What does this fold into?
Amino acid sequence: MTNSSIPASATRFVTTEQRAQYATDGYCVLPAVLPDEDLQLLLTESDRAIEAIHAEMERRGTNVLGGSRRGLQYIPGNVRHQQPELREFLFGALMREVCSELVGPQAHLIWDQFSIKLGAATAGADTGYGTDGNPQSLGTFSWHQDSGYVPVDHAPYLTCWIAIDPTNEANGAIRVIPFPEIGVRTRVTHVADPDNGDLTGYFGTSTGRLVEVPAGSLVCFSSTLFHSSGRNVTDQPRRAYIAQYSPSAAGAAGDTIWADAEPV
It folds into this structure.
């Protein structure tokens, strides 16, 4: 993939200012850029992902499956393998341009995941939050870098956090700590959060920047940017879809670390 692969007449989703902010701060926001058909696709597929998790929970006789908690939150990963319709979005014009502008001439899709918080006030939730060691067991996501979950040296990659619903402080919008504020641009060692079941790598007092966005927005950030999210305390869902793209499928030592990476 190269910049020239996108026709000059095509709609530009990423501005020069956004690209500069990504380089300086480690993140940028593309507000409400999703075409209606893409937003509807993600809505439909998020419902299908929940149905699939419920079916697996019933098969296992549990209400907690990894980081998913029936009636509260769902965080299934690599969903595209079970729901191939998502590939239309993951390799579509919008994401190709985002990769071209923020990753570079070579980009590989390495991960996709839904992040769905139905809300602590959702009627009919079948389980509660608790310190049971599962990821995000308290309904929050501890301060971390996405690269903190990769145990070997690697080039920073791009995370696109795609808002399916409007996000705000009450429903669990993400917070970020810009590179200049924290003074860190590289992967640091993370340790297990004993209460929330996550890995965490920041223990300071910063509350970061709250990133509130309308539905259809992309929050694009480096895998070495510290970010977190709070619990959804509303009675409405906060649904997001995450797509991650790396300049390489290999780590710094040349060994493949994303075996199912797919060129964009």
